[in-house]
Amino acid sequence: MTTKTPVKDKPTLEKSPGNQSMKGTNGHSVPNDCNDEIRGLVLNEVGEEAFRFFLEHVPLKADQCVTISTTTKFNIDKIPRGKHRNIINLKRINDIRYINKFFESVNSKLPNGGIYINSVETYITRKSRVLKRFTFPLNWMIYTFDVFISRVLPKIPFTKKIYFLITKGYGRVLSKAETFGRLYSCGFEIVDERLINNEIYFVARKVKEPVFDNNPTYGPLIRLRRYGKDGKLFNVYKLRTMHAYSEYLQQYIYERNSLDTGGKFKDDFRVTTEGRFFRKFWLDELPMLINVLKGQLKIVGVRPLSHHYFSLYTEELREKRNKHKPGLVPPFYADLPKTLDEIMASEMRYLEAHEKHPFRTDIRYFFKAMYNIFIKRARSN
User: Which domain range does residue 78 map to?
Assistant: First the structure.
């Protein structure tokens, strides 16, 4: 770890006589479970509030925790495999060039159940920082330029290489959804999070090996793995409405927010501003016509589901679904159900009717769905 010259205005911790704890400048007791050198370095790097957050989750003892300040995978690779149960990195992940490779390396060094703590400046906290730093209208001019450089250029195939060639990945903008999605894809689950000094500090637990996704959905046109006829997985084409790597967070969102009316997640922070616009006017659904032309979807049919959503359905309905090709216009827009149980009942009615009268059923559901969409203003969910 590289040491820094002490900063005078950073909080300090002093020994409290007569006990085995440390007393901070705000009067709170801090457990004496790490040596003075580590304590001083951590306080100097991230401050007292982050230090206390670390102590809530891991003991800062040399035999149990590696505390490091790095943006390179090289320094993680040097850590002995399986020797330590916890890893704390004091450098934010915004400055890491190959983030997933970095997370995968951390995963390989930890045992199952091991803890990894790090931080990220999200695009929301970055916006707040930029706008507060400068006066109006200069702040908005600088922020607009910053958005173009740090959020637009890295996502365009042609300019992406130029961007990373110049910046080496330093200071890239990340959303909370992308950060957590990357962690989940690399075998972690989020245990805790806290906003400290305009950065989100996260505590992640290793639960499995990384997915090693070589083709993550990052561009404006995405491919999502969905269940089709006979339970076979295929790629559904859509315009992006969520932040990158959001597909790995379905279980995370479901456990914390559950389902809202219409079967979608409540307060889903994965959806982008432009994504809400696309969904409002059905623009995100247009690329699914590619699947129709390829014979993977028909015009009317049950919606192709992700693994997580498919697992929420009853076994009877899953078996029934596997017998039929999914569709572009689902029975949802004909019946407009509100709860998951109502959605499943709607799909079962459609599938049973389709088995008896395929053509007539699809025609009836198609025109009823179009009426609800264009007259009652039902929207893409």
Answer: 13-122+174-206
Residues 155, 240 within the same domain: no
Mark whether 142 and 229 lie in a shared domain.
no
Percent of the chain with pLDDT over 90: 55
Give kind and range of the element (H or E) at residue 203.
strand 199-206
- Strand spans (E) along 5-160: 13-15, 21-24, 29-31, 65-68, 86-89, 115-120
pLDDT(7) > 60 = no
- 242 band by pLDDT with thresholds 50, 70 and 90: confident
Looking at the fold, whether 88 and 191 belong to one and the same domain comes out as yes
Residue 2 has what pLDDT?
42
Residue 381 lies in a domain: no
3-state secondary structure of 356: helix
Instruction: Identify whether residues 184 and 116 lie together within a single domain.
Output: yes
Q: Which helix (H) or strand (E) holds 189?
A: strand 188-196
Do 51 and 194 fall within a single domain? yes
Q: Are residues 129 and 184 in the same domain?
A: no
pLDDT of residue 259: 56
Residue 348 sits at φ, ψ, to 5 deg, of: -65, -40
Residue 200 φ/ψ, nearest 5 degrees: -90, 115
Residue 88 pLDDT: 96
State phi, psi for 97 to the nearest 5 degrees: -70, -55
Are 190 and 252 spatial neighbours (Cβ–Cβ below 8 Å)? yes
**Is the pLDDT at 19 greater than 60, yes or no?**
no
Number of domains the chain contains: 3
Whether residue 17 is found in the same domain as residue 163: no
Q: What is the pLDDT of residue 214?
A: 62
Amino acid at 251: Q
Residue-wise pLDDT tens digits, 88-133 = 999 999 999 899 999 999 999 999 999 999 999 998 888 888 898 8
Total count of residues recorded for the chain: 381
Rg (CA), the chain: 25
pLDDT digits (tens, 9 = 90+) for 265-282: 666 788 888 888 888 888
Q: Determine, yes or no, domain membership for 213.
A: no
Q: Is there a single domain that holds both residue 246 and residue 304?
A: yes
